[in-house]
Amino acid sequence: MALNSYSNGPDEKGHFGQYGGRYVSETLMPLVLQVEKEFEAAMKDDSFLAELDELNRQYIGRPSPLYYAERLTEELGGAKIYFKREELNHTGAHKINHAIGQVLLAKRMGKTRVIAETGAGQHGVATATVAARFGLECTVFMGAVDIERQKPNVFRMKLLGAEVKPVTSGSATLKDAMNDALRDWVTNVHDTFYIIGTVAGPHPYPMMVRDFQSIIGRETKQQILDMEGRLPDSLVACLGGGSNALGLFHPFLDDADVEMYAVEAAGYGVDTDQHAASIAGGSPGILHGNRTYLLQTQDGQIEEAHSISAGLDYPGIGPEHVWLHEQGRVTYVSATDQEAMDAFQLCCRTEGIIPALESAHGIAHIVRMAPDLPKDHICVLNLSGRGDKDIFTVAKELGEEI
Amino acid sequence: MSRLQTQFDALRAENRAAFVTFVTANDPDFDTSLEILKGLPSAGADIIELGMPFTDPSADGPAIDKAAQRAIKAGASMVRTLDMVRAFRIDNTTTPIVLMGYFNPIFTYGIDRFCVDAAAAGVDGLIIVDLPPEEDAELLEPANKNGIDVIRLATPTSDDERLPVILNGASGFVYYVAVAGVTGGKSATADDIGNAVARIKRHTDLPVAVGFGIRTPEQAADIAARADGAVVGSAIVSLIEQGLEKGSDKSEIVDNVLNFTQLLANGVRSGR
């Protein structure tokens, strides 16, 4: 990989430095290699790109607005804050960007069935949505614990015609849902495409999901140039697996003056054993098809993550983030459950926008950072999802019954 | 000569297939697991696959997943797994032991240190299910240097283009995964397996053992007639779960496992 650019990766084996790769069972290898070949061909195929563009505009509603958060800016009294409004996408989050790309690829490969794992349910809803749109059979694996805390999204998926399979193995959350999705994929390898929900998994998924999500950053770049006549000073995004963060960051990686902050979920604090911050509290390891940082014991057993936000509740992270962390290009910080809750409420009251608890972790970092920055500092937050799905969790935290 | 090669040569001379058994280390606890391990050769096991417990065994079905979770709950660790092999080797120096599992616990232990310690404990081979040939160079070299075979997996999706990639660097034997799926799931037909084994043998001189979906002495006999080895895992491991559910005492569980192993071994021996 040439070192004069941060955006050349991965290499031909899917490695970002020593991270990434293809750590899957041999049964899946031919299919994983085929997905890579088809993805590369599709991205050079004008008709594929035209169909993707049409769906992005007419079905998802792209481009999403870049919105000046005036009252939040005033409230914090420093940096000028913009929101990239991914929560306005069809289905209410950025997840639809990679779901639509992957379903087109599934169709191109002649697959008749798609599967997905989901934590908060956003990726599951996105997958169920595109499966319905293209008439494909859809099964979504979701931890039993997450089904309990994300009931509205479970019902949405059912309305969209997807089968939601509760996962009871392990900790019954996102990582276990991914195990069961892999078990299904290896069993139904002939007709099934696995729509992975983040920039993780075996190569080419981290690259493919990133490339479908990079539309966020490409639009942002054009929009901020139109509105401010220059690039932003900083970008902020929350980070579970890292798809919305990489989607915003990737087109800016070689713009040396743009600072980037990815905000992990610190749960009760990264110094406790109840968090989901793989960069802050993890170590190198191999899980779910890639080498990355993991929350694990000294014996290599995977630990359960904790976050108030089901979408960040994962003990790993996309491999390109680990590489960007080790290169020092992106700064990885974290926000606790409490900080996210406070930021969630602040955003509701100052901007009239109910953000996803995931995105609220990004806002929490802005709350810490913005007051000390000059007023001409331009900061863009990826408002990756809307928070309607989280109102039950938030109500419970606030001790209110709804 | 390696224990694996010696064993396959001896079985070839007897004109019979190897009976390969899988159990998870430390399931349901260290002492019971060691007792099962020690009893397997006299119950007819020719080669033993010992599972290295991992929290997230995404290539395994419920039986082996649960076995891993039981083992971890009972304090499993890589050190304990190697302790178990060492204890087994005190009075058995001939039955090959192949450690089977996932890459992360080895990676975390330290690959080089693991290969040295495993060889010293008496391990003969490794099957790492989430480490395809594209990624296994960092394990293959130190393993082979310490006399440990890295056993590669071939599957129903391995076409003639893929097989040479799989076989380049393979040693010990080739593990043919008979069905696309997880352990303890569907069974392939004996004819399909026979054809697949014949196809693999056109590419290699290594013995071919077949696993996934074999759970009765009759099925084991069918496979033994067509391959160099038959592997049974989930069906054996399930007996531990059933025993625990019934509240059987540990010696009863050991007896059940070993009696069933003997029936399967008889099946393998009747195959040709």
In short, what is this structure?
In chain A, 42% of the residues lie in helices and 19% in strands. Chain A is α/β, with parallel strands linked by helices and 402 residues long. Chain A folds into two domains: 16-56 and 95-202, Rossmann fold (3-Layer(aba) Sandwich), CATH 3.40.50.1100; 61-92 and 210-397, Rossmann fold (3-Layer(aba) Sandwich), CATH 3.40.50.1100.
Structure description:
- With 402 residues, chain A is α/β, with parallel strands linked by helices.
- Chain A has two domains: 149 residues, Rossmann fold; 220 residues, Rossmann fold (3-Layer(aba) Sandwich), CATH 3.40.50.1100.
- In chain A, the strands form three sheets. A six-stranded mixed sheet of chain A has the order 3-4-14-9-10-13, sandwiched between helices. A four-stranded antiparallel sheet of chain A has the order 1-2-12-11. Chain A has a four-stranded parallel sheet with strand order 7-6-5-8, with helices on both faces.
- In chain A, strand 1 and strand 2 form a beta hairpin.
- Chain A is globular.
- The model of chain A has no long low-confidence stretch (mean pLDDT 96).
- With 272 residues, chain B is an alpha/beta fold.
- Chain B has a single domain, classed as Aldolase class I (TIM Barrel, Alpha-Beta Barrel), CATH 3.20.20.
- Helix content of chain B is 48%, strand content 14%.
- Chain B has twelve helices and nine strands.
- In chain B, strands 5-4-3-2-1-9-8-7-6 form a nine-stranded parallel sheet.
- In chain B, helix 4 packs parallel to helix 6.
- The two termini of chain B are 26 Å apart.
- At the A-B interface, strand 2, helix 1, helix 8 and strand 11 of A face helix 3, helix 5 and strand 6 of B.
